[in-house]
Structure formats: structure tokens, C-alpha cells
């Protein structure tokens, strides 16, 4: 299971999610979390069709299974990933 | 079931200020927040009207207030409130004040008084395709998502100040900006309207309303139809005209709606769903107070949200004696 976290340094809601994502990583070391700065990773932004941030994309065996845009508490992020 | 003197619903500026005042008055306080602390202000890069801070980002301001709230010993839980109801039990030492139960998506709490500070959410257009393309071309925040549309074509829907601020922000980034509004006249300040009209890469589409968002992997167009509203805001009969505007992004700025659905059978709301209360922040239900943007009032600013928080907490403490 993989969680893609699309963010930007200038995005306030993304800053608010930083601590939530860090908490998630700590609680679920079995899930690979990739934080992707949209300003540096244009190809990935295009590949996943991201146009609003923060955007969380859940991958299973490399395939997208879920996504959610916007701020959310840890419990909701866990629910999104299914852990 | 955990019990608190005061439960505050909403962790924005109003809710956290209420928490500071109530805790400093010696009450046990729980703030329930469904998303993240801060509310709307986390979207603002530069706050320039908060006394004492020449400019500060919304996130930095919230972090400071959140730290203060925590240090005072206010409990904070990230849960969504789904309902409140009056209990059969009485507040201790009282024969008339009843306890309140607060139900969330993760549990239930009881309290002597409630402060509602849920703020408001962006209003949707309510057309087919809108929900499907949120995050894939439909956005409610130009300053958050504008960077994705550099040199592209976008449409802003709305005729108020927010729509014009959004359009003025996007016009510097995008190749072309359409503005769709249901009337030929705008609620926005004239200075904003004149500024936008002076720009070459803007096209006004009025009087039209959106009817569908179309796309494939991402948004490809917004379908609009004539609203039939004349310049005096009267509905006139016209043959409906439909247009399809090819765009990469749709920015929705058609207003906000208060997050008060769970209260509709508990306190009096106005026709827009805002909680009816005067400057004392007292609602129609005993022991329920309201603060911030979800209160029916004229001016919604950071400082008025904080002011409401202080008043609501003080009145709640006075109510509890």
C-alpha cells in the first residue's frame, strides 16, 4: 500500500497536513508515504491528474484505488488508506 | 460518556477564542473539530488585519492560537458533530438547566453548555459533473490551486467580491479567464469590477448560469445557459441559449453556506441557515451559544469571529453561574 501526498510549500492547508502525515507515517510504517512537491514534480502531477492540493492518492499494487482532496484529521486519513 | 462544562463545536478563530475565555474562567472545555484547527483562514497567505501582526500567514496565526489553547488545557478532538440533544438530566445544583448531549461520528459527550462555532463552507454550483471533478479541475480556492493553471484557460463562476478577487488573481497566471454570472450587474465592489474589465484576457459571460461540468480525466468544459434575468434582476422570458466553454479549470465562488445542518431542530436559524442570535451570542435554546461566521450578522472578519468567541464564552460562563 502506498500513499501519495501532493503538496506545495506555499499552500496553507498543506502545511496544516504536515503533522498529520508525519503522525500517519509513524503509526503505519507498513504504508509507504511519498510526499510530492507539485512545484518540483510536474510529471507526477500530470500523471495523476492532480489540480487541487493537498491531494492524497492511495495506490494498491501501483494502481490508484482512492483519492481525497483537502484537510482531514488522522482518523479520516487512516480510513481513506484503509488501515 | 465524558462530561465537560462547555463543549465548543468548531476549531476556527471563534471556537478557539471561546476556548481560551472559557478555560481562563475555570471551566472544563472540549473543542470538537471535523477537519483541522483554523477554519477558513488557513487558506490565506497574508493576514494584514489582525491587530499586533503587520502581516502573518493564516497558518502561523492559527499555530500560535492553537498553542495557546493547548497550553491552557483545553481538550481538542478531531470528530464531526452529527447531532446535539437536550438531556433529561439537570446541570449539577440546578433544577432548571438541563445537560446537553453532543453526538459525533466517533462518540458522544455530555456538557452543561454548548458553543457553536462551525463557520461556513463553500457553496457548490449544484450541477452535474461538479462533484466528480472536484480536485480534477473544479476548485473552490483560486489562491490554493491557481498555480496548476499557468497559461491555461479557466472560468470563474460568481459575481461577488470573492469571484472578482479570484478572477484578478487568475488573470495574471492564466492565458484566459471567463467570468460567468447570472446577471449583467455584479455585487462585487465597482473598483474590482473596473480592474477586471480593464484586462484583455478576460471575457464576461452574462447573464448565464452553469448547467454542467464536462470532462474526461480532467475538466474540459463548462456548459452554461442563459439565466433569463434582466438588468433589473427580474426574471424575463427568453429563449434559452446554451453555450459550452472549453476550459481547463472551473473556480466556484458562488457564496458560502453555514455548517448548521445538525442544529436545525435545536435552535432558530434564518432562511440562509445562519443561527439567529444577537450580539450576546445567545441562541433560542437555553445553554446553546453561537460564535463566528455561522451566526446571523453583517460583518464576518477574523476579529469579529474572535469577538464572538469571547462574548459567547463569557455568556456561557454567566449562564452556568
What does it look like?
The complex is a heterodimer of chains A (83) and B (321). With 83 residues, chain A is of the alpha+beta class. Chain A has a single domain, classed as Glutaredoxin, CATH 3.40.30. In chain A, 36% of the residues lie in helices and 30% in strands. A four-stranded mixed sheet of chain A has the order 2-1-3-4, with helices on one face. By secondary structure, chain B is α/β, with parallel strands linked by helices. Chain B has two domains: 2-121 and 256-320, FAD/NAD(P)-binding domain, CATH 3.50.50.60; 124-252, FAD/NAD(P)-binding domain, CATH 3.50.50. The model of chain B has no long low-confidence stretch (mean pLDDT 94). Chain B is elongated and about 65 Å long. In chain B, strands 1, 2, 3, 4, 5, 6 and 17 form a seven-stranded mixed sheet that branches. In chain B, strands 8-15-9-10-11 form a five-stranded parallel sheet, with helices on one face. Chain A binds chain B through residues 8, 10-13, 15-17, 20, 38-39, 45, 49-53, 55, 67, 69-76, and chain B through 33-38, 42-45, 57-59, 62, 78, 106, 134-137, 139, 141, 144-145, 147-149, 217-218, 249.
Write the layout of secondary structure elements.
The complex is a heterodimer of chains A (83) and B (321).
Chain A: E1 2-7, H1 12-27, E2 32-37, H2 42-47, E3 55-60, E4 63-69, H3 74-81
Parallel strand pairs in A: 1-2
Antiparallel strand pairs in A: 1-3, 3-4
Chain B: E1 2-9, H1 13-24, E2 29-32, H2 58-72, E3 75-77, E4 81-90, E5 98-104, E6 107-116, E7 120-122, E8 138-139, H3 142-145, E9 153-157, H4 161-171, E10 176-180, H5 190-197, E11 202-205, E12 208-215, E13 219-226, E14 242-246, E15 249-252, E16 256-258, E17 288-290, H6 302-320
